[in-house]
Amino acid sequence: MSLLRRNGLMRARTRQTMAEGISTEDALDILAPAEDVLTTEQAISATKNPDQDGTDFSEIEGTEQRMKKLRTRERNLLRLDRLFLSSGINLSLTLPFFALALQLISRRFAEESPEWWVSSVESSISDATLSMVSGLLATVILLAWMASLFVVRSLHITTRSVFLSEGKLLRLRGRPFESLHGFEAINDVTRMAITRVSFILLVVIIAALSQLVATIEGGLTPEGGVLVGFAIGGTFAAIGLDLLRGGKQHNTVEQWGLLDAYDPPLHPSCPDRVFSEILTTWMDPVLRARFDTHIQSLRDGLQPGKDIHSAIEHLLHMRYLEARGELTNRQV
Q1: pLDDT digits (tens, 9 = 90+) for 21-54
Q2: pTM, full prediction
Q3: Contact predicate 194/156, CB 8 Å
Q4: What is the DSSP string of 93-134?
């Protein structure tokens, strides 16, 4: 009993001491909530994933507008390339060989022009030697080749920009674009195409500058001979690199524009989806994303209880038979 009474007295003294040491204002300050304490709503919002806030439609619209401008630019560059550079007049092949021929002529007649040139041209213009004229013409043709390479480089840059913008647009819409087969391959192809053209352009610039300086200098001194060697060697190297570059052409304007630059991966196929597997294996990532979007749009018109994959296989099978002539369009 004495121990219990002693403990009670000690508790009473402690309470009295605390009451005397802390004023009413201090107690209210302790009980009042701090200003920097988060509320329940703020704590919940802080734990949310930023990607779950919803789709940014303004960013999607901006990306679509940018893609339209890029596609228009790519279409114009592709038309110019096919009309004058890679096909049509095919200046990408004719210009470097003309420049190389003129460079060799300039080097061959660096010491003395032939008699027919002296009697017809140098008799009127003494400084217009065959070496000088052919060297200047070679420089002009190399400059024209540089301009064509600038066009090709701009085309590749625009194609890559469209490819990346379309991937960004699919990501904003919740589509895993980077996980599709062939994304890394197409990404590397578009990037390496720009790198190759840029390197060829650098070599042509060096060759053109060397040819210009060698033509003005005359090419008879040891320094001039080195410059002529740089010019002719650079032109040879640029021609070889350009011929190696012309293997795979790609664009995003045409529906099948990326297929030529796409190497399909090998993976196990599903026996019950033969036609779908064949098509999707050979599709590039952009075309595959469009195909998946089209398949998703067909789900709305599917009858209840039907499998979308079986319906697609049946449709592709009928189209295959139509292509072979075993079914008519009316039967399909």
Answers
A1: 555 555 445 444 555 555 555 554 554 444 445 5
A2: 0.65
A3: yes
A4: HHHHHHHHHHHHHHHHTSS---HHHIIIIITT-TT--HHHHH
